[in-house]
Amino acid sequence: MFETIHSSSQHALVIGGGVVGLTSAWWLMEAGFRVTLLERAPDVGLGASYRNGGQLSYRYVSPLADAGVPLKALRWLFQADGPLRFRPEADWRQWRWLAAFLANCNATSNRRTTSKLLELGELSRRRMAQLAVHVPLSEFGWREAGKLVVYRSRTLFDAVVARPDPGNARRVVSAAEMARLEPALAQLAPQLAGGIYNAGEAVADCHAFCVALAARLREHPRFEGIVHGRATSLFVEDGHIAGVETDEGWLQADQYVLAAGIHSRDLAASAGIGLPLYPLKGYSLTAPIRPGDVAPAISVTDFERKTLYARIGDQLRVAAMVDLVGDDPALDARRVTGLTRLARESLPKAADYTQVEAWAGLRPATPNSAPLLGRTRHANLWLNVGHGPLGFTFACGTASILADLMRGEAPPFALDFLAWK
């Protein structure tokens, strides 16, 4: 079933220098491949990896597609600071993605996806621990902070508590206990019905991780270097990729890996492959924590407002919002103002919100929130794409699976719908 590739004699070109591409390059080199990395930006980790939420949610995953989401989405569209914005496009890819997303908005699909992502999350947690031997956790602000998901609605909170907890990993927290567990929530706690706490989750700086890992790549004996250039198309010949056209010239290798975020969609299309990806535009704020500020030590997710808060070093990261507005990375000042207002209302004493640095990034999502892995119909073209907002969480896991697949080994668990077909 799995075709063996003699990796020690193979050269792989990994397209994409974000967290997914960098981890892919590392695990491929550890598997015996010689690797060249192609990145369009002048440095690594400057796309969707740059200022993401910073949460590593290995044990808590919540696919966007779920029963009731379409009705909620309609309400969100009419909220001034709502978590969703939608701008219709004359682009069939947007409508195809939305149709597939709606088809996944049911409890059965959500449970199936959640179960598979929990397997992937546990693998990713173990692989990150292995990587820490080479990239010390201190270099990118990694901290096992725990994760607290807070609920404002009593009905919603009771429904979440009623769900089974197979791993017995969660702790149910009442509103009265909330401020004792996380003092930063003292002012917000009276507005909350309760929360779910998972102790094993972590926070870290994804961009710093990318920079640290890139430094280790450069020291690896099988690393062929980074080419900074924009890939424009893949050239197919006799069922194989013969090369990649870039604005820096023609690049060739034995194996090719697409790990370029949303840009993977157009590159795959140049080889006749339609990837079910759409860019979910998200926003973040990074605010300095001053002496005397009460920033959360635990990473906090406000479930109904779809807003997360993570302390990374001496800064507070606030991330939220899903804008379906096409391939538009520009900051929307109204969204930045709205997110700042939400942060001030929820955690007013957590950081200096007059000094925020705002960011927006395009997160490449599949309709069911599960990444896509594996070989395409072109024998030497591979995928590691579609991680959505969980690229940092799942990167180490999907990279290790990709390396297994590319050297002809079975993955550690059944990939099911994670595998590209």
UniProtKB/TrEMBL annotation:
Coiled coil: none
FAD dependent oxidoreductase domain boundaries: 12-405
Enzyme Commission code(s) on record: 1.4.99.-
Keywords for this protein: Membrane, Oxidoreductase, Transmembrane, Transmembrane helix
Record field: transmembrane: 12-29
Top class in the EC scheme: oxidoreductase
One Gene Ontology molecular-function label: oxidoreductase activity
Pfam families on file: DAO
InterPro entries, per the entry: FAD-dep_OxRdtase (IPR006076), FAD/NAD-bd_sf (IPR036188)
Similarity-based family: Belongs to the DadA oxidoreductase family.
Official protein name in the record: D-amino acid dehydrogenase
